[in-house]
Amino acid sequence: MKFKAKEIADMLEGVVDGNPEETVTKLSKIEHGEPSSLSFLANPKYTPYIYTTEASVVIVDKTFIPEKPLKCTLVKVENAYTSFAKLLEIYDQINRNKTGISEKAFIAPSAKVGKNVYIGEFAVISENAVINDNAKVYPQVYIGENVKIGTHTTLFAGVKIYSDNVIGNNCTLHAGVVIGADGFGFAPQEDNNYQKVPQIGNVIIEDNVEIGANTTIDRATLGSTIIRRGVKLDNLIQVAHNVEIGENTVIAAQTGVSGSTKIGKNCMIGGQVGIVGHITIGDKVQIGAQSGIGSNIKESDVVLGSPALDVSIAKRSIVYYKNLPKLVERINELEKQLKKINEQK
């Protein structure tokens, strides 16, 4: 990355206050600014640092008026935080702008690879797989037979996609994600052993989905496990066979969703939530961290606890639980008094 202050201002629709030719090659926090770095000031608590920072260019709100001389050049914008986030996105795109196919990658003869694709070292593209335009397949990714990867989708190092699965456009799968491993299907037998039930379905991931590192999504027994467009899954999540997660739902780390459960759209699910199988969670539901979900949840409900309760009831229950030792002491004291009264009769 190498930009002049004027170029940054043009990208962010801002104005330069200082040297428009000042050049930056990296990013920094304002309190740890270094020469040739770009930083930003959005939180007023950090204002004192702008007078001491070594950063060469700092993005600030247009309303910012310095009270002391500055060493840095300012780029003034409508909203410094939003503008810096936009710049981070541009920076990230530049860093990820990889193209070309490594000689050390394996691509099966029947596979189809689109234009401007990146395929890194030791990646495996199996028979009849389709990698569409502008996709990025990082080193050591495995793509099984008949898999389809959409345009502008990125698979980071070590992603494993079993056969017959479909990944949409503009998706991001982080390192260690596994798509399409067998669902947990075993039939108990009379001799206390378990007979494996073949898992012959697949996984369908729609557009604009992001999946965090080491998250696993199991293939369906029959049909498809479906992750709808816009879903965001954190790291270390388990999604079981035949689950469906609705559009724009977000789920935090270490949550487990059991088989055949249907989760609605625009839901927010906290970390370490456990969800049983074969239930339905409505649209716009919010579930607090570490909740245990054992039954259906209606649309727009907010629940907390294990077993999960309506959030207002759960919060009152927590208060009562904290006061249990005092309540026990009061009950014991009342029992003693009642015993004395009965003895006096």
Task: Examine the secondary-structure arrangement and name the CATH architecture of the largest domain.
Answer: 3 Solenoid
Question: What percent strand?
Answer: 25-35%
In the sheet with the most strands, the strands line up as 8-11-14-17-20-25-28-31-34-37-39-40
CATH fold description of the largest domain: UDP N-Acetylglucosamine Acyltransferase, domain 1
Specify the oligomeric state: single chain
Q: What is the CA-CA span between the terminal residues?
A: 91 Å
Total of domains: 3
Q: Please give the count of helices.
A: 4
What's the gyration radius in Å?
Answer: 28 Å
- List segments where confidence is low: pLDDT < 50 over at least 5 consecutive residues: none
Supply the CATH class of the largest domain: Mainly Beta
Nearest-integer average pLDDT: 95
Q: By CATH's scheme, which homologous superfamily of the largest domain applies?
A: Hexapeptide repeat proteins
Structural class: alpha/beta
| Major sheet size, sense and barrel closure | 12 strands, mixed
Write down the overall geometry. Answer: flat
**Helical fraction:** 10-25%
Number of strands: 40
